[in-house]
Amino acid sequence: MKVLGVDQNPTSCYNMTASNGYTRRYHPTQGADLETALKMWDQLSEKTGVKLYERQKMSYILEEIRGEYLKSIAKEISISDFKAQYTKFNAADSLKCLMNEESAGIFYCESIKDSLMNFSISQGSELIYNQSARVLNKNQVELSDGQVLDSKAIVLCTNGEGYYDKFNLQPAELKSAIIDLDSSALPELYTDMTKDGFGFYGQVTGDGLKSYVIGMTDFKTDDQIQEYLDMRIPGAKIREIHFYIDLRRDNKLVTVCEKGKDDGLYYLFSPPYRLAPLYALEILNIIEKDKQLNKL
């Protein structure tokens, strides 16, 4: 086994939040090898017969289209065409829209959690879910149920609890809001990049993808959330509020795998950390770099 991931804090996240709920969005980000990662999930789906993700349209709402990266991953459609598809979403005619129809979508987190608590991926990553480590060493772990497993590298998958000082992490408390409208006629996935809506995004979630969640990249009051809904999804009201933790370093969101200086272990910080295999390639690359450095 090349990499073993141990989920150290299995109960510290909350269902129905944008980061840790029934569905978790994925979409291209600069430098990420998303398609290769998705092939890993395809292999896992074939082995288990469980549907783990599906592609969905990802929309970006902007005032002006700037930069080459977004234009390289999404094509521009008219705001009138966008609103014709999503009749419950309100956007001024002066706004712009980019849509990615090919390489964005959602993970079914509940399927992963409930059906795949202990699974392997052929590229060499395994996640042990819902168990903490009784004894944790560089190449061996004794789990809370008594299993002793050996690995080329142990990766502690964590939301950072107990490690904030060690890796200079700052936990940020955020909210997600489930609204009282179903997901029909709303964008499957969107990110609001306008001045008035910056920091808000939305996605389908829940059983049958009938529910809709509004997420935020910084803390908002309930009144601010409702004001945003009044602007973008008129008539929608907050049904539920859920809190969760994102990790920041120097005020930037952290999704990293780092090697501890003292213990030689690798620590993966990536809410929701239960999707750690998505980052198996990143982990393996870090291990290979360490090997090369050790040869010098």
Structural description of this entry:
This is FAD dependent oxidoreductase domain-containing protein. With 296 residues, this protein is α+β, with helices and mostly antiparallel strands. It folds into two domains: 3-54 and 105-168 and 251-295, no CATH class; 57-104 and 170-248, D-Amino Acid Oxidase, subunit A, domain 2 (D-Amino Acid Oxidase, Chain A, domain 2), CATH 3.30.9.10. It is built from six helices and 21 strands. Strands 5-6-4-15-16-17-14-18-19 form a nine-stranded mixed β-sheet. The chain starts with a strand and ends with a helix. The model has no long low-confidence stretch (mean pLDDT 80).
